[in-house]
């Protein structure tokens, strides 16, 4: 295949970004981050920090660009979450079981391109959903408080990451990706809580609001023999503009930055056909006030929307991933994996997290790549995160009738991609 122009790539990336903004991502596997990026990584539990397999690997580790040649990868995922809540022991009439599945399924595309400029320098760009959260409760859990219509939220985050990587020595590379993020948010059906806000008019049912921001990701990739590779990355906090339409909901007047994350990985090849790889990643949710502040701040004189105001009470989590890749033939490559992430939602914080039940901890994956006679790589995968429930413990404050909210989430996803080498 002939080399394609960078201008054509940029136009394609922009078009895909617009399509992704029109979509409604609802991922929540590692908290509200994706469990992996790129179809090949997703087939092996999201492992990619030390095992670059396609152009979207630069989203996990920018240094990977030096090992990928020139290639283009385009994929799409169909994502089906199963979210719900049960409220018990409440004296204000909220008791009952509620389904948050008023919207399903969700479609999320992704795009990556990498090109070698010289023996030691490579560039690339990736466009993908970083994560998100969606709930639609057609039967509103807060109706007894006077809420009307469906209740829920819709958060989506699109990342655009141009990348430069340099090979410092044979098998030793570093890379950097400036990150641009565009995120959208909408909340509906939670008007009873507006009385606790510093800006009740900017709290719920304001339509989708948008904000943009930026940060940086840096990475290292080292190949120490034909059998062992080690990688690491650090992604800064991404400073984003405020959701003005929801300045009374999110702390700091609508603030919603993206938390910092960092991690490392190792890939080992016991044989030419078999690769066993593992990643570990830390996500610092608690550092973002609108995500990490506890509901109890409300009773310390901090209204919703204020500096130091209540958030969703999420804690930091660590995610572990183990993936196996087996090259069965020149035509077929097979993958499987298991991932485990900490649950970010404490038992005392489940009331607000009825809207954002990002509590799954386990996911299982399988995938395969078929390489055509012309060299096109067709990859498919499936991911399943078994339903997990967090039972509330003192989660509904006395002013709201006391009792507890139990929240649950399960997930299934299917994906396909096409990879082209040039």
From TrEMBL:
Keywords: Cell outer membrane, Membrane, Signal, Transmembrane, Transmembrane beta strand. The keyword Transmembrane applies. Gene3D superfamilies: Outer membrane protein transport protein (OMPP1/FadL/TodX). It is a multi-pass membrane protein. It comes from the Bacteria. Its main location: membrane. GO terms for molecular function: long-chain fatty acid transporting porin activity. InterPro entries: OMPP1/FadL/TodX. The keyword Transmembrane applies. Residues 1-28 form the signal peptide. Belongs to the OmpP1/FadL family. This is Aromatic hydrocarbon degradation protein. It comes from Novosphingobium arvoryzae.
